[in-house]
Amino acid sequence: MMPRKQRGVALIVALLVVALAAMIATRLFTTTGADIARSESQARLLDAQLLSQGMEDFALVLLKRDLDLGDGIDTNNDQWASTLPPLPVPGGRVGGALVDLDGRFNLNTLVRVNGPDPVARARFERLLAALKLDVGLVDAVIDWIDADSQVSPQGAEDLDYLRADPPYRAANRPIVHVSELLRIKGVDREAYQLLAPEVCALPPETGMNINTLSVAGIMSLADGISQDLAKRLWRGGRAQYRSVTEVVDELTGAGIVLDPAAIQDFKVSSLYFLARSDVELVGRQYRFYSLLQRNAGGGRVLQRAQTAFE
Q1: Are 56 and 121 in contact (CB under 8 A)?
Q2: Cis peptide before 174 (omega within 30 of 0)
Q3: CA pair distance 145, 247, nearest whole angstrom
Q4: Which of 66, 139, 270, 298 is the right S-S partner for 74, CB 3.0 to 4.6 Å?
Q5: What does the alpha-carbon distance between residue 201 and residue 180 come to, in Å, rounded to a whole number?
């Protein structure tokens, strides 16, 4: 017989799945788009978008529930962090996952109001080193974000990008999406594939959740953090620090000296999440991404992106 605790978890999961089905049904049957004459391909895409928005609703419910009933911290042990297996829907299947973006390096912390941030620069250099990438890339990323046209030692500004075919200019503003890295000098496809899962583009005041950092992310926190130490702190991806003091004490005990300014960015909860929706309809597959911001009232969708593939 199933233990009482397991029965309780199974019941919660079942209720959440029912809630997801209801949200998806609501999205599908309340739309007025079906009244518009459109091609089969367009109809299929719209249906896929509605399903993905049902997944968004479900993700926001999970995050709000965790905020209301949780313990005040966010970890990869939380229910929202569990991948949702494909569920049957009319004509196909839908599934998805939530990722904590606060557990990644925020590229927009590299440049503050008063110019490049030395703490963020050092952290990004350590992240690049942990990924075995050229640490000189930090100059190019800073030049892409900062408002001036002065070229850093290993950076690039408008004159460098205007030589491209087709020509373009440096953004000179905060990064909107991590895919902008592909337009930055020195970031090729291979480097991007290593960097993309480790970075995010959020408001610069957003801190880092130490519970959901990767091994490379932990190595970036301070000089001298070896891969072995980072893996120990990572806890197999299941770190569950209840306060910043806990991880600071553990690092101090390992002989790591932390910059007091760097500690101010550490936290154990999160505000920003990336929701992925995997939709299959009539043999065609779609993948949607939604940037979600959680707040006391529930949350909201800040960005959406979509890819389609056979």
Answers
A1: no
A2: no
A3: 31
A4: 270
A5: 10
Neighbours of 235 (CB within 10 A): 14
* Prediction pTM value: 0.86
Q: Residues 59-111: pLDDT tens digits?
A: 999 999 999 998 999 999 999 999 988 999 888 999 999 999 999 999 999 99
First to last CA, the chain: 44
| pLDDT, position 36 | 46
For the domain made up of 4-99+274-290+305-309, the CATH class stated in words is alpha beta
Phi and psi based region of residue 236 (left: phi greater than 0; alpha: psi -120 to 50; beta: remaining): left
Distance between CA atoms of 78 and 279, rounded to whole angstroms? 24
Angstrom distance (rounded) from CA 272 to CA 102 = 6
pLDDT, tens digit, 9 for 90 and up, residues 47-58? 899 999 999 999
Dist CA 159 CA 122 (whole Å): 27
135 exposure class (CB count in 10 Å sphere: 0-12, 13-18, 19+): middle
Ramachandran sector of residue 33 (left: φ over 0; alpha: ψ -120 to 50; beta: rest):
alpha
Give just the sign of the alpha carbon dihedral 52, 57, 58, 64. positive
Domain ranges of the chain: 4-99+274-290+305-309
Tell how many helices (H) and how many strands (E) occur in the chain.
Answer: 10, 11
Q: Nearest 5°: phi and psi at 282?
A: 50, 45
Reported as type and span, the H/E element at residue 118 is: helix 118-130
Q: What is the CA radius of gyration of the chain?
A: 22
What letters, b where the CB count within 10 A reaches 16 and e where it falls short, cover 248-287? Answer: beebeeeebebeeebbebbbbbbbbbbbbbbbbbeeeebb
Cβ atoms < 10 Å from Cβ of 10:
11
Sort 26 into a burial class: Cβ within 10 Å, 0-12 / 13-18 / 19+. middle
Question: For 138-152, what is the mean pLDDT?
Answer: 96
In the DSSP assignment, the letter for residue 31 is: -
